[in-house]
Amino acid sequence: xxxxxxxxxxxxxxxxxxxxxxxxxxxxxxxxxxxxxxxxxxxxxxxxxxxxxxxxxxxxxxxxxxxxxxxxxxxxxxxx
Amino acid sequence: xxxxxxxxxxxxxxxxxxxxxxxxxxxxxxxxxxxxxxxxxxxxxxxxxxxxxxxxxxxxxxxxxxxxxxxxxxxxxxxxxxxxxxxxxxxxxxxxxxxxxxxxxxxxxxxxxxxxxxxxxxxxxxxxxxxxxxxxxxxxxxxxxxxxxxxxxxxxxxxxxxxxxxxxxxxxxxxxxxxxxxxxxxxxxxxxxxxxxxxxxxxxxxxxxxxxxxxxxxxxxxxxxxxxxxxxxxxxxxxxxxxxxxxxxxxxxxxxxxxxxxxxxxxxxxxxxxxxxxxxxxxxxxxxxxxxxxxxxxxxxxxxxxxxxxxxxxxxxxxxxxxxxxxxxxxxxxxxxxxxxxxxxxxxxxxxxxxxxxxxxxxxxxxxxxxxxxxxxxxxxxxxxxxxxxxxxxxxxxxxxxxxxxxxxxxxxxxxxxxxxxxxxxxxxxxxxxxxxxxxxxxxxxxxxxxxxxxxxxxxxxxxxxxxxxxxxxxxxxxxxxxxxxxxxxxxxxxxxxxxxxxxxxxxxxxxxxxxxxxxxxxxxxxxxxxxxxxxxxxxxxxxxxxxxxxxxxxxxxxxxxxxxxxxxxxxxxxxxxxxx
Lengths: 80, 581
Hints:
Chain A has 80 residues and is mainly alpha-helical. Chain A has four helices and no strands. Chain B starts with 7 loop residues before the first helix and ends with a strand.
């Protein structure tokens, strides 16, 4: 899966979880950029991404992400 | 739909609907971990069940302060149901800080805290739904923990047992069996260590909806929304094969033939439900005599004809047959569960009978039971040993219907029954049944006031209240306690009927007249001149909309729901029931 493909899949997960028509994500996107992305939805996003990608993030990773790009870095690392 | 398990996304979507028109349930959620997600799931599950759950969410880890302070926001929120979720995790943390002598006291201390909370004055008229404690096997002692009272395993198991004992003693305490959920799904599905460490959430995303469902099952049961009847298909549901084709000897049942064991165990479960008080009926496309043959003759049948209240085997549509069963039993479709292996029949019934619960079944009959267990369809809020007789009572009702057909005149028929009623106030003996009837009766129920056993006991203790209950027996059957009436003084002249409800089993016997005659007599004895009745409509009690008018009460001007009866000019109403002293 390329980085671009991961972004595409994340966008569809975000759309689904946040119940939005469209979501566009880039490396620098943060929760502040999307109104529906609150702490409650965040837990659910983490879970859905884990399910979809077949991975488990470490708890340190979950706490460390500053933006979507860093989440994607973690996904790539786990999928290697 | 009401029983389909939804995931978090679906539950959250339900919350986007306008829920203000739904009946409101006031509840509170108190926990010692992050519970926001569970709160969201509780609200969503409420909407799924047709309820607007107004939830007071406690600040993080404020359990003791909120519960022990009678002036806390918890109590001023008006919450009727208080969900208490103290976790095994936090218990384990406490356990780690103690020496072994102090560890041995943990279960006792926690149980004493819960008992104090439930019996405190600020908790009366509220219900505590306490989640019990799923085990964490820390393997500090390995299996040897079973010999060591100070071990975490020992303390957690012991605490769960103590909670059961408390729940039996304290009427307003209900245990929600979180440990049972963990037994079903397994600890690794129940708990995500990475999510817990990063967010302090103790329940995994996949299990939160199940936990919310089990909590709401209790709330719904306490509100009288519960299942009373199980309707079963026969071929490939109760036994393997088709009795009409394969013959009595050819069906799969018991430990001999094919997968018969699966059907036998399914029947054992149904039998236990029947013994608990669930009415079991049959609805099958079959010739009646062929369908009955296994019940009468097959050595491996667990269910016998005695277990079945209404037996419908014919070639009419199942929808028509279920409607017929509903007429005989006189209970709502929403209190019925229909189990059939055939997806076509399931869809037909589901689409044509609103409210009935039709679980999807797994393809493999071996999986029926574990799947049905997961749905927890038969939650209840009360149980009395009398419940097991319910099927017999409905069978006798069917006989009574046959006898009635022989008489041309209804009075002659009623006379032939030799009906007698015992009238008494609320006592320690009848309290459980009075509470249960108030929770289960939906149709013949003028104001739909639900009582817990504590409520009943306090009514009994209040001398100003006239509390009455009535049994009805006839030559076929003793129906047990079937009518409850509560009258309270409004002023020195007027008595208000706070509650009047009756089991629909005894409709059309003149029981209303007998009840009113008794009410008037008691009102006069106590020196009152008027009885004021009120009808509060619900979705289900339309049958008593004109109840007071039909009994000769006069509408009260300016009070459209209320009716007045002058006891001095009252003429005793005709009635063929004798009071049994």
